[in-house]
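Q: Hi! New to this. If I give you a protein sequence and the SMILES for 2-acetamido-2-deoxy-beta-D-glucopyranose, can you show me the bound structure?
A: Yes, paste them in.
Q: Okay, here:
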Amino acid sequence: MPSHFERGSLLFSIILLLLVSSRLPPSQALPLNKKGLNSAVFLSPKFVQGPGSVGDKFYYDVDFPRGHIFLKDFNAEVVDDEGNSVPLHETYLHHWLLVRYFERKYADSSDIIMVPNSGVCGHILGQYFGLGSETRRTMSYIPDPYGIEIGNPDEIPDGYQEKWLLNVHAIDTRGVEDRLGCTECRCDLYNVTKDKSGKPLRPGYVGGLHCCYDDTHCRVKSHFNGIKRSLYLRYTVKWVDWENAIVPVKIYILDVTDTRGRADNSTSIGARVGCQVEYDVEACDAVSPHNGCTDSKRISVFMANGGDVIYGAAHQHSGGIGAALYGQDGRLICESIPIYGEGKEAGNEAGYIVGMSSCYPHPGTVKISNGETLYLESNYSSTQGHTGVMGLFYLLIAEPPLKHSRPTHDARLV
Ligand SMILES: *[C@@H]1O[C@H](CO)[C@@H](O)[C@H](O)[C@H]1NC(C)=O
Ligand SMILES: *[C@@H]1O[C@H](CO)[C@@H](O)[C@H](O)[C@H]1NC(C)=O
Ligand SMILES: *[C@@H]1O[C@H](CO)[C@@H](O)[C@H](O)[C@H]1NC(C)=O
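A: Thanks. Here is the predicted structure of the protein with 2-acetamido-2-deoxy-beta-D-glucopyranose bound:
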């Protein structure tokens, strides 16, 4: 692979996140409940995993609807060879990400331009959609009259075509010694001292994505016998054809580890990369529990452009107890709370976050101003420590129409 290709992969490999899906019964044809709503189900390339193994795969040019369209929904889950949903306690889905890019036509070595979302972390967390263990029960549809516009020929540079990259990071935890430790990518369990590129881990780094990259192994109980098996990410895309009446929304992903504050208005990507994506939660001192053993992290995020909030949902890992986004004046923009499973079956696995609640404010009722500073808060229970957790917030924002099309006074249209 050309090196810029690989560099893209590295950037995206430290991402995660976000969004999606009302749970659909597997393998069921989707009813076209609305005129013009198209739906298609695809399978990623096959990946093979045995007990303890990690796959962190980057599939370029995956199957995807083509043409000038508006995306309305994207759902994904891990299935086996027979199309059965695979539960998280067998294959932990750390994340999947869907990334948009342009590729030069007819070039033999790929010439690629990544097309990140509108979010403040630049190419890090630049995906259009992405989620982790919560994928089966997190709503991600985009309500009418909104949609995510793709395939606009005016946006695609001459000689290029639009394509999609799917990153799937899965950890096979059948028979492992410490399930939570493996899913939190604790370096000791992976016997890893160097990151994917061969660089020694930074001192004090005890867990996270740098210890569970592709082809690493989490420690399995001796004598455990499990077979390798073939898995796929099955994803369902819904879309409508382009038409004037559909209002485009922009995708933002905010990250609670983004400590730059962004009190500036700089727009260059280099200036914006403060996003670390993951962080650790220290166990509270059992003797003098601080803050009721809640680890609360809060940052400010400068939003150069605002608009109407159409959708919001957070991404957290096990231990998460909720995240919220507030406006500059302290008003609540969206709160997103994890749903924990209570059983064994796929979609309801005990101990795992199987869904995140989402916000669908009535359009026009929740606004972000241009140049507003938002506050993002992510809470975890710290009754035990955690490594490699996340506090991301996914937002869809519709920018206001151009000034000249606005009413001249502040009359509200009903
Ligand atoms: C851990 O890694 C070291 C050095 O890379 C190797 O010598 C050792 O055998 C590994 N231990 C296990 C349990 O795999
Ligand atoms: C944005 O930054 C530029 C250059 O640093 C500065 O001149 C301008 O006043 C800033 N605008 C706002 C709205 O802060
Ligand atoms: C997070 O925890 C803090 C401190 O306990 C609390 O004030 C805040 O409301 C919590 N926020 C969320 C989103 O749960």
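A: The pocket of 2-acetamido-2-deoxy-beta-D-glucopyranose (ligand 1) is lined by residues 191 (CB under 6 Å). Let me know if you'd like me to explain how to read the tokens.
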